[in-house]
Design a protein that fits this description.
CATH class: Mainly Beta
Number of strands: 22
Length: 397
């Protein structure tokens, strides 16, 4: 009897182990290759601190903001004070900007989106447009300038077949977003047109947002030797700014906008709003001479027009910017990348008094020109399959 019980228990154990071994199937993950620091690298072999977001993470449920996607990454903190008003800190490094993001360089398809004043109007960009976002953390991204907060690289990409996608969103908090995404092309030539319109009332009084966007992208490749890329957009953005509340005001009604205080009227009375019209176009040409030498060259122009009535004043700004970036690559025992990035911007502003949302008397006029130049050199030496030695440096003026 004892022998039968022992045999039965052994059979049960063997059967359980066979079930367990069958259920534990291994899946080999594909390598993720990214274009960063002027090289195509696999994330696990890159010595740099990188975070990679795919389109499934960028806007899985919310196609109106990057907030939920970026906040999934370690060391990255994105805040939204009201719809359209963002702050980003990477590893705690953040500078306050009146509107927009500073101290972090932003690129779209390798083309500078940050202006010469180091300011980025991130709220213009459309989450549904991008297939990949790469975040470089800390000052190690010196190849992208002197920003100590790091760099964010937005890549939109193409579908290699004809495709039309139409989408309408009705968020649970209200509002409406409609977009259309048209892809035309093949493996050698591609066109992409994306257009969207979004309008929504915010949670608080004086926090509504309205945005219109259209972009056109073109890519033509010449086999493995080179390619031409064109990226262009126009955006029209307006979002209201409710202002801050004291603790008592928040406890009384957290939905209120900032009330009048002393000589300053309320945010509602002054119609506090940030209005931005922006146009940008950039072209990139890349060519591979032979198995060792190659180069890529980028020219871009961006024009921002800002109208900003606030509680205290009424500001108008015109900001044309030009960017140029060129890199020479050499492959060999030691891989070399040498290049430059130059940005020039004219920042003209006029500050008026604000009389209930209407321009009053002129108070201040400013005309400022800013130029930035970065030159950089990077060398890679692959000691073996496990070790890569990288030396890089940049000079900023």
């Amino acid at each position: 009897m004892n022998f039968k019980l022992l045999l039965l228990s052994l059979l049960i154990s063997v059967h359980a182990l066979s079930i367990q071994s069958d259920s534990l199937k291994t899946t080999e993950l594909t390598n993720v290759e990214v274009k960063v620091f002027e090289k195509s690298r696999q994330k696990l072999t890159s010595p740099d601190a990188l975070s990679i977001l795919t389109d499934k993470v960028i806007s899985p449920t919310n196609g109106t903001s990057f907030l939920s996607g970026l906040n999934t990454q370690a060391g990255v903190r994105m805040e939204e004070r009201s719809p359209g008003s963002y702050r980003i800190a990477i590893r705690g490094s953040s500078l306050r900007a009146p509107f927009g993001v500073r101290n972090i360089k932003v690129y779209w398809n390798q083309i500078p989106f940050t202006d010469a004043g180091n300011n980025t109007y991130l709220s213009l960009l459309e989450p549904d447009l991008f297939r990949q976002i790469i975040i470089t953390k800390g000052p190690g991204g010196g190849i992208y300038g002197a920003g100590t907060g790091g760099a964010i690289l937005f890549n939109s990409g193409f579908d290699l077949k004809n495709k039309v996608k139409f989408q309408t969103m009705y968020p649970s908090l209200g509002g409406l977003k409609t977009s259309i995404d048209i892809n035309l092309g093949n493996a050698f030539k591609n066109h992409r047109i994306y257009a969207s319109q979004w309008q929504q009332e915010g949670f608080r009084v004086q926090s509504a947002i309205k945005k219109q966007w259209i972009s056109y992208e073109f890519n033509k490749s010449f086999g493995t030797s080179g390619a031409i890329n064109l990226t262009s957009y126009y955006g029209d953005l307006a979002y209201q700014t409710p202002g801050g509340l004291t603790l008592k005001q928040f406890q009384d009604n957290p939905r209120n906008a900032r009330p009048a205080a002393g000589i300053f009227k309320s945010a509602v009375d002054q119609q506090a709003t940030f209005k931005l019209k922006s146009f940008g176009i950039g072209a990139q040409i890349s060519n591979q001479f032979n198995s060792q030498w190659g180069w890529n060259f980028i020219n871009a122009f961006q024009y921002n027009q800002v109208e900003n009535p606030t509680i205290r004043n009424y500001e108008l700004r015109d900001e044309p910017n030009f960017s140029s970036r060129g890199v020479i690559h050499r492959k060999g025992i030691i891989n070399l990348d040498a290049g430059y990035e130059w940005q020039s911007g004219q920042f003209d502003s006029q500050t008026f008094g604000n009389k209930k949302g209407i321009k009053d008397t002129l108070q201040l006029t400013q005309n400022t020109r800013l130029d930035q130049l970065t030159t950089f050199l990077q060398a890679d030496y692959e000691i073996n399959t496990r070790w890569i030695l990288t030396l890089s440096g940049s000079l900023n003026a």
